[in-house]
Amino acid sequence: MAVSSAPLWLLVLLAIAQWESSVGASSHSLKYFYTSISDPSQGQQPHFVAVGYVDGQIFNYYDSHSQRVQPRASWMEKLGKEDPQYWDRNTQIIRGHEESFRVNLETLRSRYNQSEGLHTLQWMYGCELQRDGSKGWFFQYRYEGRNFITFDKETLTWVASDQQAQITKRKWDAIPGYNQRWKDYLEEICIEWLEKYLSYGNDTLLRTETPKVMVSSRKEVEDGMETHICRVHGFYPREIDASWRRDGEVSLEETFHGSVAPNADGTYHYWISIQIDPKERSRYRCHVEHDGLQEPLDLELKEPTNSKSNLGLIIGCVVAALVLVCVIAGTLIFRSKYLFCILKIFLSLLMGQRVCEASPGVLPPMEGEFG
Asked: How much is the pLDDT for 206?
């Protein structure tokens, strides 16, 4: 992908990563992330992007430059052959969403009494199918990286985040049958298309990849404590249970963990760490359970062999990563001022706020304008 479109993609990826870490893993899921940016001075970059994911794997893509929904998974070619109108039908629907986003961005800019320039609107919705057959769904809009309005599945009403969002809530709640139609779509049609996509992509989406597990250790110079990191790599599906066990019981004290994150080949990786007294080392194990394992895996801890070397390697990796980030950031700063928006939304994520947006299956009818 060209550098000029990288900032908007970073915004989309931030949304996906934050949402996945907050809602947790499901057996199967269908999600769309829509992101729209208003900036009349930046015509070279797409101002609207829509990305569809099945089980965390991208399968279609649309942006305001191409004006066309495009496949991003090889198994989608079979669907296109069996349903030749699929791409045209969904392209027309997303074009309607794109126009709706343009109107809604202008509405919100006026409602919040903001000047013209850089503003963002995001939307995520989709459905989940759990292993026990239970279903879930979600629907959320965000403006400027902050929650704007959310659909409450229990009450079938809209939950507004502030006074400005109350205007939209009152409008949508007053439309006869509007909320029920969204519920029916998310609980029924979305699930039907999720199951259809799984049938087309079963070789990819229903496969099993065995996790590779490795434990590394280092001794802290300051207090003599040991830090042990358990890395789990290359597994699929996404669901995994990895924990530190002390005498066979789950240990939460002094435990840290990352988010389950995707690899370039479609598999996932994850890590957990723990800090312990060296005298207690023999009591701890890294415990991993996954569909790719015939039985749970328990790895014992080993004495750190070269703490200074390990520490130096870790510091070196961190420095190298920071240098790379700086180089990329520097490039983007010169290529596009959208980086400012991404940094602003990234800061909101660090403060505990989520950023997202999405849509499923054969796409739903037009979402409502904010009014």
From this structure: 87
Within 8 A by CB and 6+ apart from 44, the residues are: 4, 336
Exposed / middle / buried, residue 253 (Cβ in 10 Å: 0-12, 13-18, 19+): exposed
> What ranges make up the beta strands (E) of the chain?
28-38, 48-54, 57-63, 70-71, 119-129, 135-143, 146-152, 157-160, 212-219, 226-235, 241-246, 249-250, 255-257, 261-262, 268-276, 284-289, 297-300
What's the maximum distance between 2 C-alpha atoms anywhere in the chain?
69
pLDDT at 98: 94
CA dist., res. 183 & res. 163, Å (int): 25
How far is Cα 200 from Cα 77, in angstroms, rounded to an integer? 9
Cis geometry, peptide bond prior to residue 237 (ω within 30 degrees of 0): yes
**Residue whose C-alpha is closest to residue 125's, from 59, 32, 54:** 32
The residues, any chain, with a CB within 8 Å of residue 305's CB and separated by 6 or more, are none
Q: 10-residue block means of pLDDT along the chain (371 residues)?
A: 46 54 64 86 78 91 94 91 93 94 93 91 93 89 94 94 95 94 93 94 90 91 86 93 94 86 88 93 95 94 65 47 45 40 40 36 60 66
Per residue in 26-66, pLDDT (tens digit) is 589 999 999 999 875 656 678 899 999 998 889 999 999 99
How many CB atoms neighbour CB 323 within 10 A?
10
C-alpha gyration radius of the chain = 23
What CA–CA distance (Å, rounded) separates 289 from 67? 44
Chain centroid, CA 342 distance in Å = 15
Structure confidence at residue 188 (pLDDT): 94
Percent of the chain topping pLDDT 70: 74
Tally of CB atoms within 10 A around 349: 17
Looking at residue 354, its pLDDT comes to: 33
